Amino acid sequence: MIGLRIQIDPLPLVEPMVVRLRDCASSELTEHDAILIDRQGNRLEYDFNGFSLVVHSDQPEGLDCDVVMAVPGQTSAHRLIRATSPHNTFLVTEQCDQLCVMCSQPPKKHHADLFAQFATAAILAPERSVIGISGGEPLLHKEKLFQMLENVARLRPDVTFHVLSNGQHFEKDDVKRLIDIGTDKILWGIPLYSTDPETHDRIVGKDGAFRSLERGLGILMQAGASVELRTVVLQQNRDHLGALADFVFTRLSFINVWALMQLERIGYGRMNWTTSFLDTSSDFEPISTAINGTVARGISVALYNFPLCSVPKEYRQYAPSTISDWKRKYLGFCARCDARSACGGFFEWYSHDQGFSGLGPL
Amino acid sequence: MTVMPLKFRKLPVGDLLFADDAGGFFQADQEFLHRYALGDLTDVDITFLEANGHAFHELGDLSYAGFEYRFASRLYTPGDLDYVILVPTLRCDLACGYCQVSRVNENTPGFDWTDETLKAVIRFLDGLTTKMIKVEFQGGEPLLRLDVLQEVRDFCRTRFDKCEFVVCTNLQDPSDDAWEFLEHDDVFVSTSFDADPGTHEAQRTITAAKTQQFLGNFRRALERLGTDKVSALPTINPHNPPPARSIIDHYASLNLRSIYLRPINHQGFARKKYDARGSASTWNAYYSAFIDHLVDYNWIAEQTVEEYYFVHCLRRVLRSGHNGHADLRNPSIVGSGYVVIDHDGKFYPTDEARMISRVGQFDLAMGDVFTGISRSKIDELNQEASNNFHPDCVHCPYQPFCGIDLIDDLSRYGRIDLPKHLTDFCQKHTGIFDKIFSMIYSSDPKVRKSLAIWSGVPNFDGSIGKRLQ
């Protein structure tokens, strides 16, 4: 696995500090840049505005242009931006107002406010970066989130965001702000599990969630926002996917893509695995119904986190490789598979004895 | 709960088809029509209408907004002018009986762009705001003025970020220099191949030698340029059409997978020679049978084939925002997104407008390259170019999928206010949409297979054609 933290020698910090690591000095340095001055094995020493910053790293791809955050009292720094990776995500809060059965990042009560640091990191990101914003529920801190997005949009018009939100905290007044930031700057990843309010609410563990999500989606539509609608397929919503396809076409034709997602076996997803995981390698019909019902009507559909061999041949075109590099693995038989380079593989925490029953090399 | 207004029509087979203004549709029986008309809907009706997007609870709720969105995205809005059709000459080395474009003989003087015209066209192109341009060269036979094509191409390549050139040629006798021109990556070929060699000879080339000359050039174009850069249209005489299977086999044997059947157009010289008025029903019968032949062909063929316009109409039924074809739009705003520049430098909103102006029916010119575009006349026409509130269209369930073509109406009837159901445009499109819905509601696996291919989906299942039980 690729490490999302790197060890550093302790620093006398009073507040979190964002640093961009550079292998050599260039003309575009900022006050946040640290220049590599010495390398001995895995020990890298940087000059940071006259101070010494020591990093211990065994990452083969190097650290040039990575943006890291050092936090007071911690001996490891967060790799906020890995310059060589397309998968960079800021976990802006761990607070959430839902308790979803499949949550991979179960919520916590405490919130550490690091929006200023995240904004700095985004401004230091490589050209045309796509930065993920995740939680918890980022919109619980809407004002600070919007300020961050507005700042970055102004200073770095080439940087775009992919924000994962439950979509329930938008107000009419947000329409203008969303338009001003730029509707092409943010792709909102919004989950919807069923057209039946009760089923949806039960899956996300919150009464009234469906109705307030409907309002939120209406506001995003009005703003002309870019939306990736996300539906994790579960035993709980297996029989609802056909109706959901009709709902997506009739109510949500404005979305950029409808993502049907396989379950991630971590967090609550691991706890609820046996009662939630839908083995689509042996039961693909609900997925094909959803695809056929929407693609013919002009809606883009994508299957996320589906190993290619779990998908019937004529539907593989909808299954791009989506599992992030740092949490991806392949199984033994994948070595014999001709489709491996096009396949996203499995989550690091996928357990095959409880997983798909109908897999094998292509 | 409020139900959106529903329009309905008896299908040739089966129940009534209902559709709303956003293009949502379903089948139901006569009893439902009574309940709907009398305001006596059952709970089952209401649940169905709500799920299928025909009803809303309160103004502005997600059902309402989703409906609005689908309604709005069916409306065509012209973008920047980024497409020009250039007619550098009217001269042609063929004299096809149905010629739609009022050609003149190869040696006739006075029907070519002058040097001043060319300069003015380049000045006009230079003044466009678009960064991408599509240039279509028509004629006459545009390759007779290869010098003009080269100069326009060279200019566009330096002036625009992205260019695409389409040469509409008869491929009868391209010179070596013409082949060199056609072989560039940004150049595409559009030609005519009338069904099969026999029909092609009867309608276009007349002599066997000329037919062979064309076929040789056609094969050479397909081999050297590739089938993705060469398109061919068969022009069909509805009163004496070639057998459908012959067209399909000949096109498929050349690996041409998309056939765009064109009935002989009632314009230009064609109107003098052929009786094209009142031929919609003849055409519709042929067209419907042709689609059936395609369905049979595709059932067993390795390489499947489509009829281009049918697929376009099918996708307009299924989807919002499918406005890519200039022949079927609503509102049909012309003279904005693209213009035609004729051999004398005059601007026309469409090729058809150029033709009816040439035969002296109406003058639909909109200025010329020397004095600039003048839109006032065309804008008057554009004001009427919407079917949404047209008294003849408001009750038609096909209205959201359909378009409007006032220039065709002018050409055929000399007026735009003939009742729509008496027009060729309405009769032909009603026929196409009847066919499409009979297929959407068919359970024949052969039909389902072709519909899946044509709508771009792995399987065309029953979920698209809803039925209220």
Average pLDDT of chain B works out at 93
Report, as a whole number of angstroms, the end-to-end distance of chain B. 20 Å
- How much helicity do the residues of chain B have? 25-40%
Overall radius of gyration of chain A:
21 Å
Broad shape of chain B = globular
In angstroms, what separates the terminal alpha carbons of chain A? Answer: 25 Å
- Radius of gyration of chain B equals 24 Å
Strand-residue proportion of chain A: 15-25%
Biggest sheet details of chain B = 7 strands, mixed
Give the total of beta strands of chain A.
16
Overall helicity of chain A:
10-25%
Most strands sheet of chain A: 7 strands, mixed, barrel
Order of neighbouring strands in the sheet with most strands of chain A: 1-5-4-3-2-6-7
Q: Overall mean pLDDT score of chain A?
A: 95
Secondary-structure element order of chain A, N to C: EEEEEEEEHEHEHEHHEHEHHHEEE
Q: Which helices and strands, and how do they pair?
A:
The complex is a heterodimer of chains A (362) and B (469).
Chain A: E1 5-8, E2 17-22, E3 33-40, E4 43-48, E5 51-56, E6 67-70, E7 76-81, E8 88-91, H1 115-123, E9 130-134, H2 142-155, E10 160-164, H3 174-181, E11 186-191, H4 197-204, H5 209-223, E12 226-232, H6 241-251, E13 257-261, H7 268-271, H8 273-276, H9 285-295, E14 301-304, E15 328-329, E16 346-347
Parallel strand pairs in A: 2-3, 8-9, 9-10, 10-11, 11-12, 12-13, 13-14
Antiparallel strand pairs in A: 1-5, 1-7, 2-6, 3-4, 4-5, 6-7, 15-16
Helix pairs in contact in A: 1-2, 3-5, 6-9
Chain B: E1 2-3, E2 7-10, E3 16-19, E4 25-28, H1 30-37, H2 43-51, E5 55-56, H3 62-73, E6 83-86, E7 91-92, E8 104-105, H4 115-126, E9 132-137, H5 146-159, E10 162-168, H6 176-182, E11 187-192, H7 197-205, H8 208-225, E12 230-233, E13 235-236, H9 244-253, E14 258-259, E15 262-263, H10 270-273, H11 280-300, E16 306-307, H12 308-318, E17 338-341, E18 347-348, H13 351-358, E19 367-368, E20 372-373, H14 376-382, H15 406-413, H16 424-440, H17 445-455
Parallel strand pairs in B: 6-9, 6-17, 7-8, 9-10, 10-11, 11-12, 13-15, 14-16
Antiparallel strand pairs in B: 1-5, 2-3, 3-4, 17-18, 19-20
Helix pairs in contact in B: 4-5, 7-8, 11-16, 11-17
